[in-house]
Amino acid sequence: MCSKNRSEVADFLKLYLIFESSMLKLPLDEFMEQVIKGGITAFQLRDKNVPARKRVENGKKAAEFCKVNNIPFIVNDRLDIARILTADGVHLGDKDIPLDIAGNKFGEFFYGYSCNNSDDVKHAASCNAAYIGIGPIFDTSTKRDLREILDKGKIRELAFAADIPSVGIGGINKTNVDSLKNTGLNGIAVVSAICASENPYRETRILRELVEDL
Ligand code: TZP
Ligand code: MG
């Protein structure tokens, strides 16, 4: 069950790092040290470009860093991997194991749900999702089969459509965070801006400062 209340969730969504090991420019341990020092507030194991065995191995290391530093550890798509790694949360989308079924069967996690329209938001709310991801906000090459890019009006509409904390996702980096002000988002989720950086500490630090003004 989600042991976090609404305001704790809203807080940890500030700077939500979604991890892809294939993008890293430095060893995993060093990367984790840097992003934690830089100020990530949540971590998601996505790591879709490596086989499951490697994903679990990377996840084990990353989860250790998160646990010691009190950072929520969330697994994308894979409830089996979430269980193996004793994750705090699981993030699902419309193509994954249905949120309602997962929530009933695997109540040990809190859930995040990807939303691109108001039906998605209604679904997330009816399944008691702890938070929603709203996007894509900008174009990005990180994800294939990208859904429709949302304009600021739509982001605002979805962010206010349900009383669930929300995080924006898709192509977000230090040059465009400012444009998300007053959209009602509680924070940003990024993959390449941090994972592909030569200096993850600096990048994280800059993004963390920027999101304080959202
Ligand atoms: N869902 C919507 S866009 C996206 C996901 C997982 C990828 C975001 O990656 P990046 O590199 O931050 O644009
Ligand atoms: Mg998914």
Automatic annotation (TrEMBL):
CC cofactor note: Binds 1 Mg(2+) ion per subunit.
EC number: 2.5.1.3
Root EC class: transferase
Cofactors demanded by this protein: Mg(2+)
Binding site for 4-amino-2-methyl-5-(diphosphooxymethyl)pyrimidine: Q44, L45, R46, D47, K48, N76, S114, K143
GO cellular component: cytoplasm
Pfam families: TMP-TENI (PF02581)
Pathway: Cofactor biosynthesis; thiamine diphosphate biosynthesis; thiamine phosphate from 4-amino-2-methyl-5-diphosphomethylpyrimidine and 4-methyl-5-(2-phosphoethyl)-thiazole: step 1/1
Domain Thiamine phosphate synthase/TenI: 15-194
The reaction(s) this protein catalyses: 4-methyl-5-(2-phosphooxyethyl)-thiazole + 4-amino-2-methyl-5-(diphosphooxymethyl)pyrimidine + H(+) = thiamine phosphate + diphosphate; 2-(2-carboxy-4-methylthiazol-5-yl)ethyl phosphate + 4-amino-2-methyl-5-(diphosphooxymethyl)pyrimidine + 2 H(+) = thiamine phosphate + CO2 + diphosphate; 2-[(2R,5Z)-2-carboxy-4-methylthiazol-5(2H)-ylidene]ethyl phosphate + 4-amino-2-methyl-5-(diphosphooxymethyl)pyrimidine + 2 H(+) = thiamine phosphate + CO2 + diphosphate
GO molecular function, one term: thiamine-phosphate diphosphorylase activity
GO biological process, one term: thiamine diphosphate biosynthetic process
Keyword terms, alphabetized: Magnesium, Metal-binding, Thiamine biosynthesis, Transferase
Binding residues for 2-[(2R,5Z)-2-carboxy-4-methylthiazol-5(2H)-ylidene]ethyl phosphate: T140, S141, T142, G171, V191, S192
Top-level taxon: Bacteria
Task of the protein: Condenses 4-methyl-5-(beta-hydroxyethyl)thiazole monophosphate (THZ-P) and 2-methyl-4-amino-5-hydroxymethyl pyrimidine pyrophosphate (HMP-PP) to form thiamine monophosphate (TMP).
NCBIfam families: thiE (TIGR00693)
Protein family: Belongs to the thiamine-phosphate synthase family.
Protein name in the entry: Thiamine-phosphate synthase
Gene that this polypeptide is encoded by: thiE
